[in-house]
Specification:
This protein has 341 residues and is mostly helical. It has 13 helices and no strands.
Length: 341
C-alpha cells in the first residue's frame, strides 16, 4: 500500500509541473504535501479509496490549471503593451563583427541580383546559353549562401547574429519552391503530385511557424530580426519579377544593390541601437519594400478586368515584416508564465 501511495504522489508531483511557473513555485510543494497526507489517510480504507482520491484530483486538475494560466496571462498582459515593448530594452548585439554579420543577407542578395542582371542584361532567348546560366547562378548564389548560413546557425543553436540568416533561409526556401511550382504550373504540371504538393506546402508553413515561434520565445527583438530576414527575401523577389519574361527589365534589377546596402544599414541599426532605432528600421524597411514593389508593378501591363496582385503582395510584404515583432510581444510573456524567465 505504501508503494502505491509513493507512486501516486510522484505522479501528482509531475502533474503540478503543468501549472504556471509562479504558481508552482509558491504552491507546488504545499499541494504535494497535502495530497500525500490525503493518500496516507485514505489508505486505511483500502486501495480503491486511494485510486478514488487520485481520480478526484486528476478530474479537477485541467480546470484548475487553465484557471491559473488565465490569471497569470491576465496579470502579465494587464501591465500594458508598453511594458511588453520596453522590457529588455537594453538588448543589442554587442560585438560589431556579429552585428555586421547579421546585416549581410540583404547586401549579399542585392549585389547578387544586380551582378546577375549585368551578366544577362538582354532577353534570355537572344543570348548564349552559358551567359544565361552564369547570370542565373550568380543571382542564386547569395540565396544558397544565406541558406547554408541559416543551417549553420541552427547547428550552433541560433547565436545572436543569426536570426536574420535563419529568417532569410526560411523565406528563401519558400520562394524557391514557389518559383519551381510556378514554372511547372505553366506546363500544367504539379510540383511533385497533387497530394505531395499539399504535404510540401504544410511542411513549409510548419518550418516558418517554428522559426517564428522559437524567436518569439526569446522576445520581439529576436523575432524582429527574423522578420527582417523574411522581408529581405520577399522584397528582393520584386526584382525577380522585373527580370522575368516578358518584361526583361534588368535595368530595374540594378537597384537591388543600393537597396540591399540600405537594408543592411537598417538591420545594423536594429541590432545596435535602442528600440526607437528598431521601430525606425522596421518602418523604413516596409516603406522601401513598398516603393520597390510599386516601381516593379508599374511595368506590368495587365489585361483590363484582371485582378491586380498589388494589394495581396503588399499584404505579404507587410505581414513578413510584422509577424515577428507581433509574435514576440506575445511569446516573451508566455515564456515568463511557463518558465518564469
Amino acid at each position: 500500500m505504501n508503494l502505491t501511495v509513493d507512486r501516486l504522489s510522484r505522479i501528482y508531483a509531475l502533474l503540478t509541473l503543468l501549472y504556471p511557473y509562479d504558481f508552482r513555485r509558491d504552491f507546488a510543494s504545499e499541494m504535494q504535501a497535502v495530497f500525500q497526507e490525503k493518500l496516507n489517510a485514505a489508505k486505511q480504507a483500502g486501495k480503491w479509496a486511494l485510486w478514488r482520491d487520485f481520480w478526484s484530483e486528476l478530474h479537477n486538475l485541467p480546470a484548475a490549471i487553465l484557471t491559473e494560466y488565465w490569471l497569470a496571462f491576465r496579470d502579465t498582459f494587464g501591465r500594458g503593451i508598453m511594458f511588453l515593448v520596453t522590457e529588455d530594452k537594453s538588448w543589442r548585439i554587442e560585438g560589431r563583427r556579429d552585428a555586421i554579420i547579421a546585416s549581410l543577407p540583404p547586401m549579399l542578395m542585392g549585389f547578387g541580383v544586380a551582378l546577375g542582371a549585368l551578366v544577362v542584361w538582354e532577353p534570355w532567348h537572344t543570348i548564349p546559353r552559358w551567359r544565361l546560366l552564369t547570370g542565373f547562378a550568380i543571382m542564386m548564389l547569395p540565396g544558397l549562401i544565406i541558406g547554408l548560413g541559416g543551417l549553420w546557425a541552427l547547428i550552433k543553436r541560433i547565436p545572436p547574429w543569426s536570426h536574420t540568416w535563419v529568417g532569410g533561409a526560411g523565406m528563401g526556401l519558400v520562394l524557391f519552391v514557389k518559383t519551381i511550382a510556378e514554372e511547372r504550373a505553366d506546363f500544367g504540371l504539379p510540383l511533385v503530385s497533387p497530394v505531395m504538393d499539399v504535404v510540401i506546402l504544410i511542411l513549409l508553413l510548419f518550418i516558418l511557424s517554428v522559426i517564428i515561434g522559437v524567436s518569439a520565445w526569446q522576445g520581439w527583438r529576436h523575432a524582429g530580426m527574423v522578420s527582417l530576414g523574411f522581408a529581405t527575401m520577399a522584397g528582393m523577389a520584386s526584382f525577380s519579377m522585373a527580370t522575368a519574361a516578358p518584361f526583361n527589365r534588368y535595368d530595374l534589377a540594378l537597384l537591388a544593390a543600393p537597396v540591399g546596402l540600405v537594408m543592411a544599414s537598417l538591420i545594423y541599426l536594429f541590432v545596435r541601437k535602442g528600440d526607437g532605432g528598431r521601430v525606425i528600421a522596421i518602418l523604413m524597411y516596409g516603406l522601401m519594400n513598398a516603393i520597390v514593389f510599386f516601381i516593379v508593378a508599374s511595368i506590368w501591363n495587365l489585361p483590363e478586368g484582371d485582378p491586380s496582385p498589388v494589394i495581396p503582395f503588399l499584404i505579404v510584404l507587410t505581414g513578413a515584416l510584422l509577424v515577428g515583432p507581433i509574435a514576440g510581444l506575445i511569446g516573451k510573456p508566455v515564456r515568463r508564465v511557463v518558465q518564469g524567465s
